[in-house]
Structure formats: C-alpha cells, structure tokens
Amino acid sequence: MTIEAGRIRRLNEAEPNPKGRYVLYLMQQSMRARFNPALERAVAEANRLDLPVVVCFGLLDGSNGFPEANARHYAFLLEGLRDAAGHLAERGIAFVLRKASPAAVAVDLARDAALLVLDRGYLAIQKRWYGEIADAVSVALVQVEGDVVVPVDIASDKHEHAARTLRPKIRRHLGDFLEPVRAVKVKHPATRLGLKSEIEIGDPAAVLAGMVLDRTVGPVKRFTGGENAARTRLKAFVGDALSRYGAERGRPEAGAASHFSPYLHFGQISPVEIALAVRAAKSGTAEDKDAFIEELVVRRELAANHVHHTPGYDRFATAVPDWARKALADHAKDERPHRYSEEDLAEGRTHDRYWNVAMAEMRVTGFMHNHLRMYWGKKILEWSPSAEEGFARTLRLNNRYFLDGRDMNSFTNVAWVYGLHDRPWARRPIFGTVRYQSENSLRKIDAKAYERDVTRLCAAEGVTDLRF
Predict the structure, then answer these.
(1) Strand pairing partners for 117?
(2) 3-state class of 20 per DSSP?
(3) Side by side, which strands form the sheet with 53-58?
(4) Strand 140-144 vs strand 94-98: parallel, antiparallel, or unpaired?
(5) What is the largest CA-CA distance in the chain?
(6) Would you state the torsion angle of the CA atoms of residues 251, 247, 178, 93, taken in this order, to the nearest 10 degrees?
(7) Helix (H, G, I), strand (E, B) or coil at 342
C-alpha cells in the first residue's frame, strides 16, 4: 500500500524496535477504520515486520476533558468509536480504549510497540499531545496526514491572507493527493495479544451515562455519529443535493447543504473520499462539483492554514488582523441600539425573529446553515458591548452548541466575522471598515420556509415551545 510521501512525516530517527510485539496507531483525529491513510500505513508496517496492529484511543472527561466539549459532542464521538471498533475487529486489529489522555495511552502502549503511528492535527491541544508523545517515546514515530486533502505544509509555508492566495497553491497540488486509500489485508491478527479496552464501546449511550461532563447541552437525533452514517450521507448527497449545490447552496431552505461538517470535524469520513465521490458522481454539473470542492478543500484548508500558523487563534488580540482591530477600536464608543446578554443570545431572545430562528436550530439540533452562520456572527458583534466581548461570546456559543464546534473551521469563521481573510469595506457605525451584514441579506432566502423547517427539526428533537 502506497501512501503519498507528502502525507508522511518521521518525527524521530529511531528504527522499529526489534522486541516490539505490535505496531501501534493512536487514532485521535482520524476516527475511522476505512479510508484512513494513517491506519493503512500502520498495517503496511506491521505486515512488513510480521506483527499485528493495535489501535488506541484516549477518552477524557471531567475537568481534564476536551475543552468545551459536552454531552452533545461526546455522544457523537462515541457513536463514531463504536463504528471504528467494529470495523477494526473485522480486520483482525485490536482496539484499546482507555480513560486517559491520548498522550498517556500512546506512551504507555508504545513500551511494547515496534513503531508508533500518529494522526496529524492543527489545534493547539493536538500539537501538545503529539509533542508530549515525541518527548516520551523511544520507538520509531511516524505521523500521517489524513484529514485534509493537500497537506498544510505542502500547500503553503506561511499564513495566507485569503482564499484567493491559497487557492492556486491548493489547485497546483490537488491532483497529487486525490487518490483512493485502499484497505491493506492484515497478515497477523491481534487476537492473541490479550489487550483489552477499559471501556466497552458497544453501547455508546451507556458509556456516555458513566462520564463526568456537561449535560446541559444534550445529544441530538438529527445526526448520528460514525463512518457508517457519514457514508450514508455521502451517498445521498451525490445522488441528489449535489445537482442543486451550485445554484442553491446559499439557501438553507433548499436542502442543498451536505451536512458533512460534524463528520469531518471528528474525522469520521475523509475529505479525499468525499472529493473523489463528488468528482465521480453522475449527478451535478461541473459548476456544482467545482463549487463543492472549493468549500471542502480550499475554504476548509484555509482554516487549517490559519490555526496552524496562528498560535493565538482563539483570542481576539491575535486571531483578528491589525487593520480590523484598529477599525473596531475606532468605533468602540459608538452607540449600540441593541445590546443583549450572552444568556439572551443563547436563548434567542432578541428583536430579530430570524436570528432567533437560526439560534434555535443551533441550540436544539447542533447545526446552522453557513449563510446564516455569517449573519448570526455579525449580529453578535453588533449587539455586544465591545468587539472583544463579541468575539468571546461568538466563540463560546459556537463551541458549546455546534456539533462541529471547537474545530479549525470554527475558530477561523469566528475570526472572519471580525475581519480575518477579508478586506476593508465602507465605513459604518460599530463595524468601522469591517464587513457589515444587514437584515437585507435574509432577502436572498425564503425565511418563512426556513422557519418552518427549523420548527419541524426542533419538534423532532422534542422541542415544541419555541418563541421567535
């Protein structure tokens, strides 16, 4: 099995341990057992060394859990791990799930490993985990990129100003990395190793019930986690919505959205698999397909570029460009006709009916269409006591309620509201020269139809007492 060389990074100069009992793969970002280049690299190495493969995962909760993650996020994650564990078992690969940090699990199991394979992630917490592992293990350590199409370092070695500067760089390499990942047959099943998980993942709801976490934001019925559900959505999208994507993707009531973002966030489906399916689809025009690839690859990987090159991507002072911070500071004392507390915003208690509708979709179902996410964020800036507070509120609400919150796209899109990857516009109150979005933008959609859709979706979640 050949994985593109540009996806693979050796993190040390060690050779495989001749006394190792297995090849170990820490599955932490690419939470799937198929179309996973890191996993297939581990299998290929294990076959070469005549060893079995062990996959491990570190599950944290309580105060040590993933920052801002709650029951909604963990339910989706656990459903994904159930799928992955089942598919791994079918291939003869051991799966070890422990209640510990990813770094701690990997370091402990690496003592008996010949080689350790890691995913790649661009958030600060992921970089910290991988750094801890690299400092603590002595076995050969390999990192494989599996969650963007064009590896970030190959696309660009600097922070890009906008999509227009990254796009040609991505397009230049796109053909080199749009290759299928085929499963490698496992030569040596791991059944005799005797390794067991501390946590039985067969019943995700039972695992969730035993965790210490924030339950004020609960699981949703609208989305089921896991690679099985992700592939079902992919099949449905290329069979129907793709044919309307180019013309209707900006209208939330049109049903042309792909809804892949939660699955991409948890690594439950590969963007390469999606892109190949879209390109091969019989439905959709070339324009539909190009529009989708632009969002899936260029825009998403612009976000990866941003968080990778911006250590303070979650802070107003470091994530927002200088010109935008100055423009907002120049208008910090402008009158704000409408001001709302964060609680009012979370509950959708504003004067803006359709903003409240969008907030209900987010709060109850864990999703909001991109067109409305932009409007939603701009209004929080307008209705907050300061730009700094608006940024913090937007990020907290985003990360709390969205299934795909705490994602590289989340941090980038929130910063976009405040001027990132944009240019100065006409000056106006509060915003200065940062792009403004008025209620007139809702004229581009059928807002009443959208409200009906949200009411129906919320009712399916058991919430019917909506007040817009």
Answers:
(1) 25, 142
(2) coil
(3) 8-10, 140-144, 113-118, 22-26, 53-58, 94-98
(4) unpaired
(5) 71
(6) 40
(7) helix
DSSP 299: I
Closest by Cα among 271, 28, 58 to 150: 271
Listed residue (144, 416, 119, 410) closest to 262, CA to CA: 410
Block means of pLDDT (10 residues each) for the chain, length 468 residues?
91 96 97 98 98 97 88 98 98 97 98 98 96 97 98 98 97 96 96 93 97 96 98 97 95 94 98 98 96 97 98 98 98 97 98 97 97 96 98 98 96 98 98 95 93 97 95
The dihedral of CA 132, 133, 138, 140: what is its sign?
A: negative
To 5 degrees, how large is the angle CA 360–CA 361–CA 365?
115
In single-letter form, the type of residue at position 61 comes to D
The closest of 332, 327, 410, 420 to 376, measured between CA atoms, is 410
Pick from 186, 133, 218, 189: nearest CA to 463: 218
Q: Say if domain 316-460 classifies as CATH 1.10.3720.10.
A: no
- Residue 240, sorted as left (phi over 0), alpha (psi -120 to 50) or beta, turns out to be alpha
Give bridge partners of residue 97 from the DSSP assignment: 57
392 C-beta neighbours (distance < 10 Å), count = 18
* C-alpha pair distances (Å), 191 with each of 94, 95, 96, 226, 467: 7, 10, 12, 24, 55
Sequential DSSP letters for 416-441: HHTTTT------BTTTBTS----GGG
What residue ranges in 153-277 does DSSP mark as E strands? none
Determine the distance from the C-alpha atom of residue 313 to the mean position of all C-alpha atoms in its chain, rounded to a whole number: 15
Alpha-helical regions (H) of 312-446: 316-319, 322-330, 342-347, 353-365, 370-383, 387-401, 408-417
Pick from 393, 463, 449, 465: nearest CA to 220: 463
State the DSSP string of 33-65: SSS-HHHHHHHHHHHHHT--EEEEEE---GGGS
